Automatic annotation (TrEMBL):
InterPro entries: Adenosylhomocyst_ase-like_sf, Adenosylhomocysteinase-like, Ado_hCys_hydrolase_NAD-bd, NAD(P)-bd_dom_sf, S-Ado-L-homoCys_hydrolase_CS. GO terms for cellular component: cytosol. Binds 1 NAD(+) per subunit. Substrate binds at T53, D124, E149, K179, D183. The keyword Nucleus does not apply. GO terms for biological process: L-homocysteine biosynthetic process; one-carbon metabolic process; S-adenosylmethionine cycle. The gene is ahcY. GO terms for molecular function: adenosylhomocysteinase activity. Pathway: Amino-acid biosynthesis; L-homocysteine biosynthesis; L-homocysteine from S-adenosyl-L-homocysteine: step 1/1. It is an enzyme of class 3 (hydrolase). SMART domains: AdoHcyase, AdoHcyase_NAD. Its cofactor is NAD(+). It comes from Desulfurococcus mucosus (strain ATCC 35584 / DSM 2162 / JCM 9187 / O7/1). This is Adenosylhomocysteinase.
């Protein structure tokens, strides 16, 4: 069996961690049990580029149990949990992932997924989708379809579609309500501070926290900052509607040029590059802390920080100190990469339960509709989204009402007036 992980002897440790996730992912486990008998993915090659965490392992095991052959690579050089990777190899997954990859090694692993010739492609950030379209476009004809887990990846794929270059249908799993409203807001909101606290053991209470971006991720981070007692929570936005929403949610809103002068902790969550850059570093207080919750390590513009610094040293496992020419010190967490996955363990299992249930159901939907889906980036079918929500509620012991027949007829008719 072909694979490459850091240390296969870590498998038992990884298996124990995966069992914890399984206990806290009831929806995905229900789907796993349901389809382990029918095996709808029998003989289907699934190629995935996802963060290799205990939650991802539950999804990979669900595909294996449903009959699929699975190959997995990490979607970030620093997010792989090596014990989980080892445990998945023992479960039969072809894993190409280890923590601390170089850029060259990262893309070597992606090439191994391409060599696997997957028929269904699961991605987080669209690096695998982009690689196939740039260098291996001949493979596209054998791909039934793909999924995309994160906002950044959906943006890239929509650009491919606009340019008329998309070669297979893709379901934007990120756009499922039971993904972005929960994973992005509650998952990233909590796990971002989990990463910051593990890296620094800082006290958030009393601090001024600056959040760049007020999408679902930014909303979650801002809410958690307030809940942890931040003295001020400042939102930086370029979208006037989101900025207005932040104001109405009770947060301060200002440009980064102003926020840079007062912030203690800066957290980026925009999906764009150079959000915090030279002119902002030049205004920051001594001791300012920088963290990123966006997919790529481009939001805090490290080249500018390097250029302004006279020295650099790692003072804690995930904290790099930059001493500027005037003696001020600025601290970058997790090398500017996803702080929640580098310095912590990523999202809690409970929210990834819904996200990965959507991944599984979207893949099944594409397989069942093979050849009939348009070459577009599509949102998940509403009925699948609602199914995930209902199953999640049931797993929590929560019941909801149903409409009466009269109510159903009322909302379908245009004839009822004043």
């Amino acid at each position: 069996m072909d694979y490459r992980v850091k240390d296969l002897s870590l498998a038992s440790q990884g298996a124990a961690k995966i069992s914890w996730a399984e206990q806290n992912m009831p929806v995905l486990m229900l789907l796993r049990r349901k389809y382990s008998e029918a095996k709808p993915f029998k003989g289907v090659r699934v190629g995935a580029v996802l963060h290799v965490t205990k939650e991802t392992a539950v999804l990979m095991k669900a595909f294996i149990d449903a009959g699929a052959e699975v190959a997995l690579a990490g979607s970030n050089p620093l997010s792989t949990q090596d014990d989980v990777a080892a445990a998945l190899v023992e479960y039969g997954v072809h894993v190409y992932a280890w923590r601390g990859q170089s850029g060259e090694e990262y893309y070597w692993c992606l090439e191994k997924i391409v060599e696997w010739r997957p028929q269904i492609v699961l991605d987080d950030g669209a690096d695998l989708h982009a690689l196939i379209h740039e260098k291996h476009v001949q493979l596209a004809s054998s791909i039934v379809g793909g999924t995309e887990e994160t906002t950044t990846g959906v943006i890239r794929l929509r650009a491919l579609e606009r340019e008329g270059l998309l070669k297979y249908p893709v379901i934007a799993v990120n756009n499922a309500y039971t993904k972005h409203m929960f994973d992005n807001r509650y998952g990233t909101g909590q796990s971002t501070f989990d990463g910051i606290l593990r890296a620094t053991n800082m006290l958030i209470a009393g601090k001024v926290v600056v959040v760049a971006g007020y999408g679902w991720v930014g909303k979650g981070i801002a809410a958690r900052a307030r809940g942890l007692g931040a003295r001020r929570v400042i939102v930086v936005e370029v979208n006037p509607i989101r900025a207005l929403e932040a104001v109405y949610d009770g947060f301060e809103v200002m440009p980064m040029s102003e926020a840079a002068e007062v912030g203690d902790i800066f957290i980026t969550a925009t999906g764009n590059k150079a959000v915090v850059r030279r002119e902002h570093f030049e205004k920051m207080k001594n001791g300012a802390v920088l963290a990123n919750a966006g997919h790529f390590n481009v939001e805090v513009w490290i080249p500018d920080l390097e250029a302004l610094s006279r020295s650099k040293r790692q003072i804690l496992p995930y904290v790099t100190e930059y001493e500027l020419s005037d003696g001020r010190r600025i601290y970058l967490l997790a090398e500017g990469r996803l702080v929640n996955l580098v310095a912590a363990e990523g999202h809690p299992s409970e929210v990834m339960d819904m996200s990965f249930a959507n991944q599984f159901l979207a893949s099944l939907y594409m397989l069942e509709n093979k050849g009939s889906l348009p070459l577009k980036v599509m949102n998940p079918p509403v009925e699948l989204d609602e199914m995930v929500a209902r199953l999640k509620l049931e797993s929590m012991g929560i019941r909801i009402d149903s409409m009466t027949r009269e109510q159903e007829e009322y909302v379908k008719s245009w004839r009822h007036g004043t």
